[in-house]
Amino acid sequence: MRSTAWNDEENKVLPEMALDFMPEEKLRDLQLQRMRATVKLAYEKVPLFRSRMDEKGLKPEDIKTLKDVAKLPFTMKKDLRDTYPYGLFAVDLSEVVRLHASSGTTGKPIVVGYTKEDMDVWAQVVKRGLLACGFRSTDIVQNFYGYGLFTGGLGIHGGFEALGATVIPISGGNTERQVMLMKDFGVTAVGGTPSYFVRIIDVAEKMGVNIRDLKVKRGIFGAEPWSDGMRDYIEEKTGIKAYDIYGLSEIVGPGVGCECECRDGIHIFEDHFYPEIVDPETLEPLPDGEEGELVLSTLSKKAMPIIRYRTRDITAIEKTKCKCGRTIRRIRRIGRRSDDMIIMRGVNVFPSQIETALLRAEKALPHYQIVLDTKNNMDTLEVKVEVSRDMVSDSMSAMEQLNKKFKHSIEQILGISVIVTLCEPDSLPRSEGKAKRVIDNRKKM
Amino acid sequence: MKIPQVSVFVSNRPGRLQAVCRSLADAGVNLLSLTLADSGEFGLIRLIVSDPEKAVDVLAKAGLSATITDVVACPVNAAIGGLAELLSTAVGSQQIDYMYAYPSTLNGSNIMILRFQDVDKAIEALKATNFKAISKEELLG
Question: In the list A220, A319, A336, B64, which could disulfide-bond A191, CB 3.0-4.6 Å?
Fold first, then answer.
């Protein structure tokens, strides 16, 4: 099963990676066994799950094959809010060694918990992802994911430590210091949100530091959807290789899946997480290869087993085997979330489309923000674009031309008219973590 | 014969001009000329300064995007018809994107700043006339 590409000196299948290459039949057996145990645990310990099973007249024993998983009730984000803070925990709090929570921009946050064993699994899946992307124990890693309640920072941190790399837990913010340490500490790899790394690239440029001249060779990025265009931009600017790690707090945090050196989709760590694709409207399971909403179940989580969680991420499970030889299946990189979708005069718009349009127009990735508003009873979509030094001209008509070029490129992709406003650099708000891309000021009818 | 002109992109709102002038002043860059062009949402501030490269760096540090373009400074007779005289030469048939008057005089002549579409061709055209473009050293000091 293993491709020769992974058995040469450069790309050895290390013992820690063996689980990624498990024979498929064995993997399905393991998944079924773990799924049954998880359903049993949740049924016995989580009242909400038990009542939903009872409503359907289902018993844990009814799950006899992996096909039966489709019978199980879904879990939604709302369920985590409604049971705030500990309602979905399946163990006594004395066994919980870590809590994380979402930022909770609206109302109560969602809370997730981990046992000691859950923490070990989490560190191991992140480590497997890092290994698949070529990170090694010899790396000196700058981790600018936010540390704290957000699962990103400490989640990736655990993986780096399990790998045995030298971790710099710098967290987000203080961008000039990020650049200084990257240089002075001889950083060889980085981790964080892609939008913040783009910011680091900008600031480094301003400071006269070319990241190409530093020792940084690779980066692991996640926590927000990012386009292939953004990856090209990062790689061309810095000479590093940029890899995508996937995860969500409700399931474990980063490390649900990760790319490998082939960068042809995200391998889900299927021995711990069970992926399905469903039609977002009918909720019927879709076969591999078809696009729909990703639904995930935890297979080994003890503190908070989650069955059939609707991620809102739109993707497909790849039908073909990856060239790397891993038997764990891949999902397509997440380009869009059904949550991020803007419905504009009846047209579906995703921020990633605007990103693609901007890259197409200028071959650069300016910072941008989408503002939705209602003017004269008409919904308007405005794209604010920061003008970098490379884009400035002394000619007014050239600046107006630039504006038109962005507008035209966006309208061509979206098929609706938009307003483009050129803004000064650094004038659009940024969080040090995830980029806030959409502001909706529309009047609700 | 080319004069480096600094163009700064700014949002069209109060206080932006002040930010530009303040950061240049603090860095010891002398403003020799300033003109403004605006288009509703944003504006371009065109500057002739004592140290253009330094100005661009200082502005970048202040979070402003700026660029340098070559323009031509040409003395014209302060008497009636001075500019008409210049434009009736081969220079006048060049494509001029914009022009403005420089605020000080040189040896009794007014100074016009001209932005040609093709600066090299314009300088060639100028050489065949009685007008002599002012050098960077002469203008910036």
Answer: A220
Cite the DSSP H helix spans in A46-133: 47-55, 77-82, 116-132
pLDDT in tens, A23-39: 999 999 999 999 999 99
A389 close contact with B: CB closer than 8 A: yes
Our CA-based measurement puts residue A342 at a distance from the nearest CA of chain B, in whole angstroms, of: 25
Does position A5 have pLDDT exceeding 60, yes or no? no
Tokens 């060239």 found at: A323
Name the CATH superfamily housing domain B2-69.
Answer: VC0802-like (3.30.2130.10)
Q: What is the pTM of this model?
A: 0.75
At which residue do the structure tokens 């998944």 appear?
A31
Which of A395, A397, A425 is closest, CB to CB, to B64? A425
Judge: A394–B7 Cβ closer than 8 Å, yes or no. Answer: yes
Q: Which residue in the set A392, A393, A424 is minimally distant from B63, CB to CB?
A: A424
Which of the residues in chain B have pLDDT under 50? none
The number of angstroms, rounded, from the C-alpha of A93 to the middle of its chain's C-alpha atoms is 28
Q: Which residues contact B55 (CB under 8 A, 6 or more apart)?
A: B6, B24, B27, B29, B47, B49, B66
Contacts of B5 in chain A (CB under 8 A): 394
The CATH architecture one would assign to domain A342-440 is: 2-Layer Sandwich (3.30)
CA distance A328 to chain B (A): 47
With CB atoms and an 8 Å threshold, state whether A421 touches B66: no
How many Å is the Cα radius of gyration of chain A? Answer: 23
Q: Per the CB < 8 Å rule, is A393 touching B16?
A: no
Tracing tokens 């694709």 back to the chain, one arrives at A277
Binding-site residues on chain B for chain A (CB distance < 8 A): 5, 7-11, 16, 37, 39, 41-42, 44, 46, 56, 60-61, 63-67, 69, 97-98, 115
What's the CATH class of domain A1-339? Answer: alpha beta
Q: Interface pTM (ipTM) of the complex?
A: 0.86
Q: How confident is the model at residue A345 (pLDDT cuts 50, 70, 90)?
A: confident
- How many Cβ atoms are within 10 Å of A19's Cβ, its own excluded? 19
Query: Whose CA is closest to A246, among A337, A308, A373?
Result: A337
Domain B70-135 homologous superfamily, CATH: ACT domain (3.30.70.260)
> Which sequence spans correspond to the domains of chain B?
2-69, 70-135
A216, A182 in Cβ contact below 8 A? yes
Where along chain A do its domains lie?
1-339, 342-440
Other C-beta atoms within 10 Å of A202: how many?
20
Q: Which residue of B16, B60, B65 is in closest CB contact with A391?
A: B65
Between residues A104 and A215, the one the model is more confident about: A215
- Please state, in angstroms and rounded to a whole number, the distance separating the CA atoms of residues B135 and B141: 10
Cα–Cα dist A113/A302, whole Å: 9
A400 touching B (Cβ < 8 Å): yes
pLDDT (tens digit, 9 = 90+) per residue, A274-311? Answer: 999 999 889 999 999 999 999 999 999 999 999 999 99
